[in-house]
Design goal:
The protein is mostly helical and 64 residues long. 34% of the residues lie in helices and 0% in strands.
Length: 64
């Protein structure tokens, strides 16, 4: 299993016009998103057959 570089994941999964994020420095959401994307990628999940559901607030921007 290879470790996918976070920058490659950002290119593949995040909307470029949403970066940089508005998350506060030191917030764990960026780290949590990076871990999620690595797991998503390594598990071979088909993103075209997947739906993400979020709450409100800062964490709600994850699926945007």
């Amino acid at each position: 299993m290879s470790r996918t570089h976070t920058a490659d994941l950002l290119d593949r999964y995040f909307l470029k016009n949403r970066l940089p994020t508005i998350w506060c420095p030191g917030c764990g959401l960026g780290t949590a998103n990076a871990a999620f994307l690595r797991g998503f990628e390594e598990a071979g999940i088909d993103r075209d057959k997947t739906v993400l559901v979020n709450g409100i607030g800062c964490s709600g921007r994850t699926a945007a």
